[in-house]
Amino acid sequence: MLFNSLDFLIFLPMVFVLYWFVFKKSLKIQNLLVIFASYVFYGWWDWRFLILIFLSTVLDFLVGQQIFKNQDNNKKAKYWLWVSVAFNLGLLGFFKYFNFFVDSFIESLNALGYNMKSVWTLRIILPIGISFYTFQTMSYSFDIYYKKLKPTTNFVSFAAFVAFFPQLVAGPIERASNLLSQINTRRIFKYEQATSGLKLILWGFFKKLVIADSLAPIVDDIFTNYADYPASTLILGVSLFSFQVYGDFSGYTDIAIGTAKLFGVELMSNFKFPNFSRNIAEYWQRWHVSLSTWFRHYLYIPMGGSRVSKLKSLRNISVIFLVSGLWHGANWTFVFWGGIHALLYIPVFLMGRNRVYADNVIAEKTWLPSITEVFQVLLTFFLVTFSRIFFRSPTLSSSFEFIGQIKNNFSYEPYMHPMGYRMFDFYLLIALFTIYEYLIRRDERNPFKFSSPIVRFLLYALVVMSILLFYDDGVNRSFIYFQF
Amino acid sequence: MKKFILKSVLYIFLILILLEIIVRVCHLYGEDPPRYIDEYGVEKRVPDNDGYAVTGNRKMNYSKFHINKAGFNSFREFTPSIDKYEMALIGDSFIEGFHQDFSNSIGKQIEDQTHGIEVYEYGYAGYDFANQIYLVHAYKNDFQYIDQIVLYLKYENDLERDIYKPNTDRIKLLSSTIFKIRNNIKLLSYGTKIGILSPIKNLVKRGMAFNNSTEGYQTNELKGSKAEELKVDQKRIANFKKLIEVYGFDKNKTSLLLDSRTTSERFLEFCRSNNIRYIDFSTSFKNSKKPTTLIYDHHWNAHGRSIIAKVLAHDLKEQQK
């Protein structure tokens, strides 16, 4: 079920009413409702893949207990941890990467002169959200192994933690210490929390329906017909893609966090205005935070993190970015994208500037940013946007052709919208969106933080009006990150 | 919880009121002048109505219309007489031309390009060939003075019936309470037009289709085949013959305006062999370097309409020679 569908608009109030009015007396029954609603939510897309979620739930529930039971016997505990990792990565490997690895293996053999044809490639449907929920369940086993968490003995709570529908298909990837503890505790309806949830949902819809969906036809057109366009159009296309993917994914996250708030649950922040990052390190502290945190906790730090020799640290950074790239999709374009980010991150790391912006935002104590900050933001945006050529292109060769076309056809021509709409509307939209995000840059969880209720009300109305003004009936409304 | 629900409902209500005001003030909604069936059984617009037609979310196309005393969108009143040279241009929404300001319509452009000719545009969204030919028949007292009649024929969907019957169901539906509410609440009218309410409509349709699951079943054995094409052409030609037989067709002053790219060669051959004149605008459209249709709509844009006007003006001049 898509957040931006009529089905969800009917589903959400129904679950809300059942949750707070019918089942609120018993935590267990309330959690059973969460499981049922989440399975309906997921099964709306394809009910057959519910079995994978269920298997992953059962296995990690049992594994968690085994790891805990064998806490004093590290060898056995490690064995159970590997069972969880092997199972979850096995699911991912089969459904997401099987064809990729087979094809890549055959291609490399062909390159070495062995003429082979792939007979192993299978027609596999990628189950939505598999990369998210497998990582979430693995985090549970890791946390128990690292003695940061005690396993739950309540299967219902655990199943609700794995399947919690607001964040099931595209995150944020929650750690059990945050989400499971809330699911294990009796939730109380709080007016402020619920209204803040509704505000986030509204803002998320704006980002998805107005920013991402209205830019999608332009980006699709430019990336499909890149060979026919001059550099100015290609640069426009990839820049707008930066806004599209941000609007799409952060919009989804805002709706997810907002929906969870309606049920008395706080999810972690996933996006903290990454477009105002002053270097690549800050960008990764603001973009898809739950994934970066996951990799830091469960891969980077266990490998030694930065507390090893410089050379090993560089290796660790490279591994993190390459794996993160591969996590996004079974395509060399994503690995390359990860590689570019590693190359951009390493100099920042070597200069010791990877944590300097961790606790502050651009123009922290002033209204306007300094010229240096403007330059830093523009440079970071340019570098991140450049890397997105690889993220968006279907193949590595088309990525390089796209870049080649920018170089070889370095000229300007005004771009005409594929549907004939005024392009000025979209430029104005992006400009206003960026200015507004700048104004609210200090608090990603409160997009309408204005003291005057009249101003807030006018903003709500303006946001809804913008949705009407930019609503496009013909756009594919799916979320980009569903494919990961 | 009570406060949350009450306040949410209040906010939604106030936002909707504010949006209604914005939609009205910015005139984002399109107007559809009321329709009726007159004493002759002809479906048309209620006379003497002015308003604005709007296309797209952000008023991408915005034009004024004027329904004259005859009940059609036109810059002039229709007063045919023996002393003047008149041309009647009859057709559907393409001729009705809500996509262009009425003061610059196809008829006006034809008049500007010719001398001493009055053009009467009998355009009405939804007219097929049966509507058009019945109109000429029903208003024969007026049409006896009109010197040239041009009927715009879209072959692919204008010849599906062989007898005229006024569409009373549509008129009833449009004057039903639901439609009245929709027309009065401009936000609703705007929402319907931009498609944001389509999911609700589809949900209702889905529900209805579920109840009538046998409906819609049809064989596709012949679909797209040569045999099917022949069958369709034969049916359409038979409908055409029957309609001109029942309602009359003055070959001396009536022509069909058509696009030969979307018209069957069999039908064109039938016209040629029966001395039925047709004006084909396909070459002019094909040669146009600029797009001829609106991009967010399938109707002719200002450029397409000026091409049609040129083609018809040229034809009129040829006729007058």
From TrEMBL, chain A:
A single GO cellular-component term on record: plasma membrane
Transmembrane segments: 6-22, 29-45, 51-68, 80-100, 120-142, 336-353, 374-391, 424-441, 453-471
Single GO MF annotation: acyltransferase activity
Membrane topology category: Multi-pass membrane protein
Pfam families documented for this protein: MBOAT (PF03062)
Keyword Methyltransferase: no
This protein's UniProt keywords: Acyltransferase, Cell membrane, Membrane, Transferase, Transmembrane, Transmembrane helix
Cellular localization per UniProt: Cell membrane
Single GO BP term: alginic acid biosynthetic process
Family: Belongs to the membrane-bound acyltransferase family.
Record's protein name: MBOAT family protein
Automatic annotation (TrEMBL), chain B:
Transmembrane helix in keyword set: yes
InterPro entries: SGNH_hydro_sf
Single GO MF annotation: hydrolase activity, acting on ester bonds
Gene3D superfamilies: SGNH hydrolase
Residue spans crossing the bilayer: 9-30
Keywords of the record: Membrane, Transmembrane, Transmembrane helix
Protein name: SGNH/GDSL hydrolase family protein
Source organism per UniProt: Zobellia amurskyensis
